[in-house]
Structure formats: structure tokens, C-alpha cells
Amino acid sequence: MLKKPLILSLFLLFWSTCTIAQNLHLIDSLSRKLHSAEGKIRFELLNDVAWEYRFSYPDSTVFYARQSYDLGQRLKLPSGLAEPLNFIGVALNYKGDRIGAFDNYEQALKVAIDQKDSIQIAYSNNNLGRLFFEQGLLARSYDYFIRALSIFENLNDSSGLAYTYQSLANLYKSQHDYPKAESNYLKANKIRLALGNTRDIMSGYSQTARFYQDNNQHDKALRYLHLADSAGQVIHDEINLAEVHISLSESFLNKGELEEAESICAQALKVIAEKRNMRMLPQAYISMGQIKLAQRDLTAAKKFFNLGLDIAKSTNDIASKMEAHYYLWKISEKEKNKFSELTNLNAYLLLKDSIKDLDLARQVERLQFEIEIERKERENELLKVDQVKTEAIIKQQRLSNIILGTIIVAVSLLGFVQWRSSKKRRESNEKLAQQNQFIQNQREEIVDQNEKLSRRNQQLSDLNHEKDTLMSIVAHDLKSPLNRIKGITDLMEMEGHLNKDQQDYVRMTKDATQAGLDLIKDLLDVHMLEESVILNLSTFDISAFLLEKTNNILPAAEAKSIHLHIAKIESVEVQMDADYLSRIVDNLLTNAVKFSKRQTAVAVSAGKSNGELWISISDQGQGFSEKDKLQLFQKFKKLSARPTDGESSNGLGLAIVKTLVDRLKGSIVLESEQGKGSTFIIRFPLHNN
Fold this sequence. Notes:
Blueprint: H1 6-18, H2 24-34, H3 39-52, H4 58-75, H5 82-95, H6 98-114, H7 118-134, H8 138-155, H9 158-174, H10 178-195, H11 198-214, H12 218-235, H13 238-255, H14 258-275, H15 281-294, H16 298-315, H17 318-335, H18 338-414, H19 418-495, H20 500-531, E1 537-541, H21 542-559, E2 563-569, E3 573-577, H22 578-594, E4 601-609, E5 612-619, H23 626-630, H24 653-663, E6 667-672, E7 678-685
Parallel strand pairs: 2-4
Antiparallel strand pairs: 1-3, 4-5, 5-7, 6-7
Helix pairs in contact: 2-3, 3-4, 4-5, 5-6, 5-7, 6-7, 7-8, 7-9, 8-9, 9-10, 10-11, 11-12, 12-13, 13-14, 13-15, 14-15, 15-16, 15-17, 16-17, 17-18, 18-19, 19-20, 20-24, 21-22, 22-24
């Protein structure tokens, strides 16, 4: 049986903590009280309303929490100002603004420390820990969770302890430390049970059950799902009860109790369909399809999988689409329906690779988040240095004013007494010397800070190297699915029996796949060229070399009725890296043909002058604008000109040319006007390197 993808598990975990419906009655009650409330009572009511809106309407949370914070500042409250800042951070995190959430959590922590507000210090640490955990920075998240746990234990705050135990449980689960994860889930459940909040109890039981399901402990999972079901019955939460019932049916299915699984899944499916809950509906149909498949009712199973697939397509639910195609593929195998089998297998493999791409994109996003946090922390350190400098200047100015005032008073009162004036001047000089020493100390501190910044810059450089390495890994990993697609299309052509439309579809698939492979090749070449600096020198005649290059491109030129010819060439013996020069000429000739219209000409010339070899490639194509010339050799920059016959272009060709020309210690010049063609002239020194 297909294991559900990690992305689906994480999605369900997130939903279990935030799908509790908004308590609209409570929100209405709090809103009515706000009309007449003033002072600290209004501050607390604004916080309560902001907290209730956090799941479904995070923008409302931000709106009310900012009002609360502004009011608290006007009232000059001695504590509690960090709470609305924490609420804003929670809302921004739900909206996906991780950096904004980090800024507000950091500000909340600073305000809480300034106000000596221990409870908000603990919540700020736990919020920062959850933020770093969601971004995959587990070591940093663990440190924040432990700080929060220690403070909540000292304060004997049960609600905060349950909150932190839940966070630690998720962290240990992600590290596959299942004993510790289980222990923390059970601790959180015990506290919530004692507190008596039925919604929190239901949420805790659901997460614990999912933990046991993921570890194939289905008896324990069933126990906690029944407990969650009982809690849901108390508060009449139909939609969350339906989700619990889906999980129950999956556990019964895994235990082979098919009748019980079918009965409870049917109940859940009825509620979800009536409520038109488009998020849960695909998985509900797929779960019923799995049960029907286990009962060997292929017709009913196929019906439910197709229903789930249709809903998943409308909501772009990649995980559910992939799962539906997987089971439809397996059913097609049993029915020996080759066309359906191949169609669903291809769809499943494409979606599986797209999920891998999402995981890689997530890794890049995490790396970018870490870099951004490092930048913000560095900026904070710079601000602290500036603050120290400003305070030093202010202190110096104040002291100078005091000295000046003292001198004026001394001069006005004791102007006639020489020894008094001399004494005052000596005192002033001594104080100025102390200030100079103080300034010197500040300078030394600034030098020390600059050294720290230099080390940070080196760390950022290392992170950039990690990013390049990740890009290389991404490119290599993408080659496998593209080669697989290309292989499948080759097999389809070999099998034959394709009508004209099918042949066109196969050809378009192959062209798109080849374009992707070409892009990956260029990406890998760019990375290799940026890393490799060793030249492989050889001696050859440039005229024979260019004749061979021109003949290689000739078929592509003739296909577009382009006259490709050698206008002028001298026989010159050169010593350089033939592979590098070959790539340069190939890219320039290919671009000349690709961006030229039919029935035009492309000319190649070469010679030597002033101790240099020059090669010129001219076309009658679209030319380059002044804006194009500013970003001509930059990677991934697609310029105003476009291929004239539907060819692909990834914006890497000229970047590779510039890199190789620089490696050969040459230069490249463009002579072009938009609409009047282009001429690239490259020059290389003829002496041996």
C-alpha cells in the first residue's frame, strides 16, 4: 500500500493545530464589550479578539493586536506589552511572512525583558523556537524551546507547559526520536486534560493519534482517535469529527477491519460532502477508494479515486492527485488496461517528482530564511555599535557642556585670580585627556566589531557556497525524471500504433524534455566553469578549426534558409584550450542562427593583428537594444530578441561565452543596433600562456 508523502503528513499536522473553527459567539461578545471599554480593560479585550481571529482571519489579528500595542504604549503599562507583538508574529507566520514574524517575536522578547515580564519572555522564546523548527533549523529551535520550558516550569504555568511540550514533541518526532516525542505528547495531553479546554484536548488527542499512526501502532492510534471523537461529540464540532473519523477508518483499514472502516468512513464522507469542505473531500474519497480496493470492488474503488482526483485537480492538491493516480494505476494493472495504466503511471511519476521539487524549493527557502536572519542579526549588532557610539558622543557633549559652564562661571566669578584660572584649565585638560582615552577605547571596540563583521561576511560566503552546491544538486536530481520522460516517449514511438495527434504530442513532449535537459547541462557547465580554472592547452590551425565549426552548424542554418559562410579567414597557428574555444564559437554561431530570420546571412571571419587572434561572427538578425547591452553577459537574463523559429533559450549562452573568454584572457566586443543585426568580435593574445 502506498505510504502517504511527507508533505501530506506535515499538512495534516498543521491543520490539526489550526482548524478549530473560530468561536464566533465569543468574538461577538468581546466585540460588543469593546464599544464601551477603556484603559487596561480595553487593552485586554483587544488582545482577546486578536487571539480569537488568528486562524481564519490573521489580518484581523494584526489589526486588533496593533491597536492593543499602541494603546498599551499610551497607557505606559508596566507589563504585558509583549503579548500583542507575539500575536502579530503568530498571525504573520500563518500568512507565510516568516521574516515579519521573526521581527515581531524578537521585538516581543526585547519588550518582555525590559518589562521583566517572565510569562511573555517564555512565550516569545517558544514562538521563535516554532518559527525556526518550521524552517528546519532544529538546533536553534531546540535552544528556544528549552528556555521557554524552564521559564514555564519556574512559573508553574500549565498552559504554557502544554504548549511547549507539544512543540518539543513535534521536534523530537522530526528527528525520529520517538520515545521522547511520545513522552512529550503524553505530558501535553495530561496537562490539557487537567485544564479542561475541550478543543485543546481534542487537538492534542488527534496529534497523538497521528503520531502513533505514523509509527504503525494502530491500537494506540485507535484509542486516542476514540478519545478525540468523544471530545468532538461534546462540543459538536462536525468538521473536525469528520477528520477524526477519516483517521479512524484508515486505522481500521490498516488492521484489516474493512466493514468497520467502510462504515465510519461513509459517515465522515457524508458530512464532508454536505459541508463542501474542499480541503478534506479529496482525501475522504481516496480513503473510501482504498477500502473498496481492499474489498476487491474495483469498480467502486475506481469511482471514488476518480472523484477524489477531480476535486484535487480543482484545488491543486498535489499530494491527493498523486495518491489518486497511484491507485488508478494499480487498478489499471489488475484490469490489464495498458493505456490507462501508462496514463496514470506517467501522471503519478510527474507529480512525485514535482513534490521532490517542492521539497528542494523548501530547502532553498530555508537557506534564504537563514541568510536573511543572519543579515538582520548583523544589522542589530551594527545598530548596537552605533548606539554605543551615539551614547558616547552624547556623554562627551554633556561633559563638554559641564566643563564649558564651569569655565564660564569660574571666569565670571574669579576672573581676577590667576591661580584659579590656571587650576580650572588644568582640570579641563585632565578631563579632556580622559575623554580622548575614552574615545580611543571606543575606536578599539569599533575595530573589534569590524573584525567580527569580517568573520560574519566569511560565514555568509560559506552560505553562498552552500547555495551553489544546492543548485548543482537540484540540477543533477532533475536530470533523472526528465530522462525517464524522454525514455517513455521513445518507448511509445518504438511501439508504434500512434495516430498523428499522438505523434505530435510525443514530439512536443520530447522537445520540451530536451529543452529541460539542455538547461540542466548549461547550469552544470556554468557551475563547473565557475569552479574549474585549469586550461588544457594544445596547438591547432584556426582556419581548419573554424571550418569544422561552421560545417557543424550548417544543417541548422539550412533548415531556416540562412546563408552561413566564411567571409574571410587567415591560417593562424594558435595555442589555447580547444574545448573552451569550441564552446565559445558554438554558442555564438548557434545564437546567430537561432535569432536570425529566414533567408538572411551569417558570416564568420578570422585573422591576426597586433599580436592578437581575432574572430568575428556577424548576423542580420534582430540586434540588441541599449538596455540589452547593460545585461548582455548576465546569467538567466533573457533579452528583447527572441528565437525566430520556436527554438528554446535559457539565458545562459552568452554568460558561458563571457566566462570562457575571460578564462582564455581574451576580450569580447559587441557591435549592434536594434533591428540591424549584430557582430561579436573576440580577441585573444597569440603568445603562450
